[in-house]
Amino acid sequence: MARCVDIDLPGPIIELGPGTGPVTQALLQRGIAPERLILVEYDPAFCRLLERRFPGVRVVQGDAYNLGETLAGVIEEPVCAVVSSLPLLNKPEADRLALLTDAFGMLDPAGVFVQFTYGMMSPIPKRMAGAAAPAFSAQASQPVWLNLPPARVWCYRPSLDDILVKRDGAGRILGSIKERTGRVKDEILDTCDRIETELRLARDRMRMDIEGRAARVRSDRHVRPALELLRRIGEQRRARR
Ligand SMILES: C[S@@+](CC[C@H](N)C(=O)[O-])C[C@H]1O[C@@H](n2cnc3c(N)ncnc32)[C@H](O)[C@@H]1O
Fold first, then answer.
1. Distance 110 CA to ligand 1 centre (A)
2. N or C, which end of the chain is more exposed by having fewer CB within 10 Å?
3. Residues with CB under 6 A from ligand 1
4. Does 176 map to a domain?
5. pLDDT in tens, 8-36
6. Atom 4 in ligand 1: which residue has the minimum CA distance?
């Protein structure tokens, strides 16, 4: 799976369903810098384990079948590759096609979607009645007999037509991610403004409160003579100097 990734193509590499990280490790061993890897894992315990095992790699806890939302604010440039170990065959075909469509929306035109499967057929159907399927080319590896059970690796690439449509439309998913990122940034800036205003008001209130208390202490009839005495001692010291 790691060999299917063109490491000279720039951009992040998204791994879907990394589990405990065997594919992550292979990607790193292939020479991919940890900062380029974004792991999308559903299970929080696996996420914690992955963070401990792979410092520098970004782990996102979320649903890989809802990539637009899961990666909102995370992806800011075309993606080099999406490497998936998700058990696709457990999902309806429409969901698998939707996943590929979302992934293609983020991919660089020369990027690849890599998927392993225990089945003999492509886990992503070429077309489906009533569903919008992206046009793609697919290549399968020979069965890997040493894997138990034997598995195959499939590489899916957007077809030229799809790339042209995507270039024209500037990438539907990338566009929606950028839009969400912008909204999140605006929300953060608004919140910062509100916090700053509240802090300023609280500081003013505190200063007025302290000044009020100090004025009350100064005018207290028991404290006043003591303050007067201190003032005179100060004057005498200064005069002696
Ligand atoms: C078959 S395991 C593969 C683990 C590992 N990559 C390997 O090759 O041994 C599938 C992984 O996908 C994760 N997963 C399943 N559904 C998911 C989803 N919708 N979003 C993100 N991760 C999911 C599971 O938690 C599990 O870690």
1. 25
2. C
3. 17-19, 22-23, 40-43, 46, 63-65, 85-87
4. no
5. 999 999 999 999 999 999 999 999 999 99
6. 19
